[in-house]
Amino acid sequence: MAVLWQARTLFFLSFVFNALAAITRYIPAGQETLFHIQPTTTDSSSPSSYTGSTSDNSQTLIPPVPPTDPPVNTLFAVQLVNGNIPGLSIPQQGAFLGFSIELSVSNHILGHNGTTLSVPFLNLLANLQERGGRVTVRIGGNSQETAVLVPSIPDGSALEKDKSTVYNPTHTPPLIFTPEILYMMANISSLVNVDWFLGIPFIDAPNWRLDVVQKGQEILGNRLLGFQAGNEPDLYLPHGHRPQGYGPASYTGEVQSLVDTMRSQGLKTQGQIIAPNVNRDWTPEDVFNTGFLDDFVQELGIISVEKYPNDNCAAVFNTGGTVHNPQDVLPMYLTHDTGVNLAQEYLNTAMIAQQLGKPFMMFETNTASCGGFPGVSDAFAAALWGLDYGMTLAYSNFTGALFHFGGQSVYYNPFTPPPTNQSAFHQWTVGPMYYANLAMAEVLGKSNQSQVIDLNANGGNPSTPGYAIYENGNPMKVALFNYLDDNSGAHDLSVAISPGGNTPASVRVKYLLADHVTARGNFTWAGQTLGAEFQSDGRLQGELNVVTVPCDATTNTCTVTVPAPGFALVFLNDQAYTDSTPSGPTTTFATTAFTKSVNTATIDPQVLETSNGHSGKDRTGFSSTSKGSSPNGATTLMDGLGGVLLGCLGAGLGAVLFALF
Ligand SMILES: *[C@@H]1O[C@H](CO)[C@@H](O)[C@H](O)[C@H]1NC(C)=O
Ligand SMILES: *[C@@H]1O[C@H](CO)[C@@H](O)[C@H](O)[C@H]1NC(C)=O
Ligand SMILES: *[C@@H]1O[C@H](CO)[C@@H](O)[C@H](O)[C@H]1NC(C)=O
Ligand SMILES: *[C@@H]1O[C@H](CO)[C@@H](O)[C@H](O)[C@H]1NC(C)=O
Ligand SMILES: *[C@@H]1O[C@H](CO)[C@@H](O)[C@H](O)[C@H]1NC(C)=O
Ligand SMILES: *[C@@H]1O[C@H](CO)[C@@H](O)[C@H](O)[C@H]1NC(C)=O
């Protein structure tokens, strides 16, 4: 048995690492240890080659022509009423949409060490905090399963493949990381309001490696919201990770062993476990039916699942499965039905979680597993779809959902740093999924009271979904989508909203726009953008554009236009608007360290001399010359935050942050 088990483990490892080795061949030198695609969720057995890279793939697809027989109705009404109407979701937080970052790429996103953080990442998080109050980020994924926390790595890096422990003939070693990753997380949380999730490696169960729990709890304190007990345990058996017979009861037994061991080591267990993290082969109820919820009523902090609506594994890993043509899958990201069908599977689980008073999260998701589809996951369709999907999950009583990051050469990343050898002249690329997070933070705002309802708008036409957001029985916002693509204006929607109660003189509208559903850049939210490929320092650029729409006092309606394609968020009153909108100039971190040529910010040398990670309260010495940055873009956060920031500016000055990786 032991021998068999070991053989299976080796088989699994060789499967994983063959996959990684196959992929990393196409990734720029120096990147191998850090950026790679994980064969994440759907079946990805026998991967052998990787075929794509976002940076050298500029595939733009053809937008579908709007249907003509029958045409989509473009004039419709939305009637809202005051009061606690049936069907509202539970109250949701502005941090509903967060991020899921593979542990293996986390240092490229977070920074180099606790004093050298990625400034664009801080800015991207700050944008969300200002709108939704808070951000949640998971560091984990498949790479958490084999990760080993070590005290230090000889070359001083925070994360690496373990070159001393080669597991298989491909000589691809597992991941090691140091507490510096945890310090980076903690230090980020001292600058922006971020809470974190981690994962406990399950590969060697029941030989638990709990250093990540001990150090995580110690370093992150209450910024750490819990640990995943395994990642997609329902796929352990098909992936050769567990022996025949492994089922939901076996998993429950492993979690019991984990909890017992945590307790015996004096580690906090109350509310710390995130489970069952199932993906495809088991439902959450399959696990619950083994007595899971009774057994771990104290320890279970969050009920969680992981799901993507589709996968691109056959193309990326040559699985022998059906290769999906991006042009053919595009329509599935231009309909409300995709998100609705996915959420439907979990309505029962959501109700169970609600009855137990536990959060229920979609812990890892995106457009399609195995990196997404070129021309789809990196196009405007994904921004509209991701936002619509997020709102459907909120309406379906999930309490949060995390958009996943793979690595350098995937299509679905909400944002991506430049390849290491390009960091001297390139900045970050912000993708459509980030815009979905940004708009969602405003949809829900900071009140913690937002209740979402799917309006079944326009007779339930899946090309034109709409939602209302209520707070304490009052309609506050209306969210309207137009998935149709027609620049002539003939398919722009004209939506007559009756706001319920007293009709205001006017309402304010923010739009999420791009030229086409297939556009791979030039996305704007309320007129502002995060720039083109390799051009973002994480700050919004351009003038804020909020449209005021007058209301008609005789018909009690406010008629809002939604371009084809586009999304409109309608603020029905001042409170709704101020609760979601950043007050005053954007408070972000000035970029300095990244690029020598594109973005050269100036720093008063005297400020640097006195900063050194300790003082730095005097921020007046900064002035940004960031290309295309907004006039107020260079302001920084509150007093006291300058310390780590300045330490990071100082460390990066002259050198280039990511060139050091
Ligand atoms: C970066 O490295 C890759 C892979 O070695 C190489 O193909 C590419 O030309 C390099 N780019 C620059 C700008 O040096
Ligand atoms: C953190 O990283 C910076 C940039 O690589 C480096 O200069 C600094 O020495 C590092 N700090 C520590 C404590 O390792
Ligand atoms: C940031 O992390 C480092 C570890 O690299 C730690 O020494 C330092 O105290 C941290 N700074 C803050 C402000 O937490
Ligand atoms: C969400 O929960 C609320 C409150 O329990 C309930 O009324 C509503 O029907 C649920 N929504 C769905 C889609 O199940
Ligand atoms: C919303 O909830 C968060 C965390 O649960 C809390 O920190 C914040 O203060 C709450 N906001 C309001 C306005 O109550
Ligand atoms: C963005 O807009 C500019 C100006 O209209 C255009 O030159 C550029 O090609 C667009 N980029 C993308 C990725 O659509």
Quick overview:
This protein has 661 residues and is α/β, with parallel strands linked by helices.
Secondary-structure content class: alpha/beta
Helix tally?
A: 18
Strands, count: 27
**Rounded mean pLDDT score:** 81
What would your notes on this structure say?
This protein has 661 residues and is α/β, with parallel strands linked by helices. It has a domain at 93-370 and 383-408: TIM Barrel (Alpha-Beta Barrel). It has 18 helices and 27 strands. The strands form six sheets. Strands 1, 17, 18, 19, 20, 21, 22, 23, 24 and 25 form a ten-stranded mixed sheet that branches. Strands 2-5-9-10-11-12-13-14 form an eight-stranded parallel β-barrel, surrounded by six helices. Strand 3 and strand 4 (116-117) form a beta hairpin. It is globular, with a radius of gyration of 24 Å. The structure holds 2-acetamido-2-deoxy-beta-D-glucopyranose (6 copies). One 2-acetamido-2-deoxy-beta-D-glucopyranose binds at residues 113-115, 180, 183, 186-187, 190, 644.
Write the layout of secondary structure elements.
Elements: H1 2-24, E1 75-79, E2 97-102, H2 106-110, E3 111-113, E4 116-117, H3 119-132, E5 135-140, E6 148-149, E7 159-161, E8 175-177, H4 179-189, E9 194-200, H5 211-220, E10 224-229, H6 248-264, E11 273-278, H7 284-288, H8 292-295, E12 300-306, H9 313-317, H10 326-329, H11 336-344, H12 347-356, E13 360-365, H13 380-395, E14 400-405, E15 415-416, E16 429-430, H14 432-444, E17 451-454, H15 457-460, E18 466-471, E19 474-482, E20 493-498, E21 506-513, E22 524-525, E23 547-552, E24 557-562, E25 566-571, H16 574-580, E26 602-603, H17 605-611, E27 622-623, H18 642-652
Parallel strand pairs: 1-20, 2-5, 2-14, 5-9, 6-8, 9-10, 10-11, 11-12, 12-13, 13-14
Antiparallel strand pairs: 3-4, 7-8, 15-16, 17-18, 18-19, 19-25, 20-24, 21-22, 21-23, 21-25, 23-24, 26-27
Helix pairs in contact: 3-14, 4-5, 11-13, 13-14
